[in-house]
TrEMBL record:
Naturally occurring in which organism (per UniProt): Rickenella mellea
Catalytic activity field: (1,4-alpha-D-galacturonosyl)n+m + H2O = (1,4-alpha-D-galacturonosyl)n + (1,4-alpha-D-galacturonosyl)m
Matching SMART domains: PbH1
SUPFAM superfamilies reported for this sequence: Pectin lyase-like
Keywords: Cell wall biogenesis/degradation, Disulfide bond, Glycosidase, Hydrolase, Repeat, Signal
Top-level lineage group: Eukaryota
Name this polypeptide is given: endo-polygalacturonase
Family the entry assigns: Belongs to the glycosyl hydrolase 28 family.
EC numbers: 3.2.1.15
GO terms of biological process kind: cell wall organization; pectin catabolic process
Record GO cellular component, one term: extracellular region
Keyword Plastid: no
Alphabetized GO MF terms: polygalacturonase activity
Active site: H214
Amino acid sequence: MFLKLTPLFSFLALASATDCVGVIRSLADVATNQNCSTVNIYGFTVPPGQPFNVSLAQGATVNLKGDIHFGNLSWAGPMFIICASLLRFLRGNGHVFNGGGPFYWDGLGSNNGTIKPRPMMRIMISGRFSNVKVLNSPAQTVSVRNPGPLTISGVHIDNSQGDKPNGKSNGLPAGHNTDGFDCSTRDLVIQDDCIAIGNGSNITFAKNQCRGGHGISIGSISANVSVSNIMISNNVIIDNDQALRIKTKFNATNSTVTNITYYGNTASSCRSFGVLIDQSYPSILGTPGSWVLLSDINFAGKANVIHVNNDSDRIAVNCGSGSCLGTWNWSSLKITGGVPGPVTFDGISGYAQ
């Protein structure tokens, strides 16, 4: 993972900030103001199809002073890119980045249909990023690629308007694939909203509320990646397809997922599964692949308490041949409701359906 981030370190080896206050009220202001030690971003509408791309100087502080709206156009994105080494603080002050999701939502997410800007936001900073609201992302919301330690806190992502069908979604929830955070990173603490971890290590996801989506996910895991040392703790998961999920692509090779700990999470009204570990993605409980190795997947310490709907599987574990390794301690997993699901791995201890 460190080797993959080396080019990013080079890219972010920016000069120290100039002692000035930069003011950004439009894209035209970015180039002449982004090198200041303090950068104030006021509310404006970003023209359709153009990225709001800010490369900040080392040690800068950024204050969001108004709401940012993005014009509607079917294009690849991202809509917002922020790069900085050792950013002291990005203070959102409760202001909103509005992606205009209803224009794009067709129930197909990033899989097909309308081309949607994704991710909506690409965060490539170290330091602190806090108190920002993100509304109606077209597809995946935030991608994090941090060059050093980063704490994200007080970020509220609201795509709830996409939970219901619209005129383009054929009865499906309109805002499909509007995941909160997609991380491929290291040394990251996220303290709000939901996550999909595709690559990285030393990630803590704590004290968040995840409502009306896919739950908290590791994956989908592709080839040649490593996910390790992940702590998922004290989150509240409501009305999701599943509470907790690990999914690996059936054809992925040379990847590992290890040392994943779930601590003190609670979930209610899970529609399909309580816990799902599946190596057959994009299928669900299909023929699994065997070349992504899973180990040390544990429910430890404070109890993880999950309630699933009556026709949902409590747990389902679909491992490839020899790809789930060791003994997994699930003694701190408590699930009520639902029915027993299929389990193809005999290394789970401390839990029985």
